[in-house]
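Project outcomes to date are best conveyed with an example. Our students and postdoctoral researchers have been running inverse folding experiments weekly, and each run begins with a structure described purely in tokens. The record below, which covers 288 residues, was selected by the lab manager from last quarter's runs and is presented without edits.
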């Protein structure tokens, strides 16, 4: 049986951290199509993660395999599409970006070459009917994705606005077919909750009152840690769990950091600088 695990917490680092511990303890061993020679099978489960307040601080977990500059680059990739121009499957480069699928959904080889901006649709729909159940966007292209070498993991986002004591909150659900829990999930959630914040701001502009960021829920069919990541996961992440507090103003004693911490702000600025250097150099996406 594939375990179904539910995690709930007040912010993104808390939920992501809990999800990894539960997956490590309760996940089952399953082979993948990407296993390297000699690596053990992955740890796998179906996961439901509920983040009560995605913008609650501390917002960044220092245990994810990357730098804060990577979070900024990924945020801009998801929200603004800064890497949409890297898509070029004919040259074995990127086959998609989430932003392109959400904001420029196009059927391949279509004679009409018609695209749909699904993000605009969500804003338009919720601005008109806040309680609509139809404000969603999909990524999967069944004419193309099943046979591609790199199909999208994110399948769908769904949004709705709820009212609570005079305040309005945009909630978002994100549905995934697959997710690398250790190496990708934190950046994914950071990017998607940034998109949630962006949609809420756009709806706020349209309706004339503030729409806050509400609950974010992740539903993942296959939430896994690859066998080749086990050694790093144990030596880095589990070691950090044992040696550091969840939050401490001394970064060397903390597993998390506030997004408004000076070192985090410096990391975001460095990410912006890297994107600008990339833009000026005309760098293209790497081949697979």
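After processing, the design step wrote out the following sequence:
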């Amino acid at each position: 049986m594939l375990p179904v695990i539910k995690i709930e917490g007040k912010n993104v680092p808390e939920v992501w951290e809990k999800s990894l511990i539960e997956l490590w303890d309760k996940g089952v061993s399953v082979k993948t199509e990407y296993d390297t020679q000699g690596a053990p099978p992955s740890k796998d489960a179906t996961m439901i993660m509920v983040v009560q307040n995605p913008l609650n601080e501390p917002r960044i977990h220092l245990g994810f395999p990357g730098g804060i500059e990577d979070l900024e680059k990924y945020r801009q990739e998801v929200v603004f599409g800064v890497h949409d121009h890297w898509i070029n499957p004919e040259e074995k480069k990127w086959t998609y970006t989430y932003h392109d699928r959400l904001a420029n959904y196009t059927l391949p080889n279509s004679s009409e070459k018609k695209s749909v901006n699904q993000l605009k649709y969500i804003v338009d729909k919720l601005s008109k009917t806040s309680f609509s159940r139809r404000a969603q966007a999909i990524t999967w292209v069944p004419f193309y994705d099943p046979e591609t070498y790199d199909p999208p993991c994110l399948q769908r986002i769904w949004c709705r606005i709820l009212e609570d004591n005079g305040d309005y909150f945009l909630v978002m659900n994100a549905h995934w077919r697959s997710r690398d829990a250790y190496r990708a999930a934190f950046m994914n959630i950071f990017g998607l909750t940034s998109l949630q914040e962006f949609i809420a701001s756009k709806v706020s502009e349209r309706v004339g009152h503030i729409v806050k960021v509400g609950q974010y829920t992740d539903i993942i069919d296959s939430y896994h840690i690859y066998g080749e990541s086990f050694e790093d996961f144990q030596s880095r992440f589990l070691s950090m769990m044992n040696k550091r507090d969840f939050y401490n103003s001394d970064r060397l004693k903390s597993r998390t950091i506030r997004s408004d911490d000076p070192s985090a702000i410096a990391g975001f600025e460095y990410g912006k600088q890297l994107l600008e250097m990339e833009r000026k150099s005309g760098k293209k996406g790497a081949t697979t």
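DSSP finds seven helices and eleven strands in the chain. Residues 185-207 form the longest helix (23 residues). The training component of this project remains on track.
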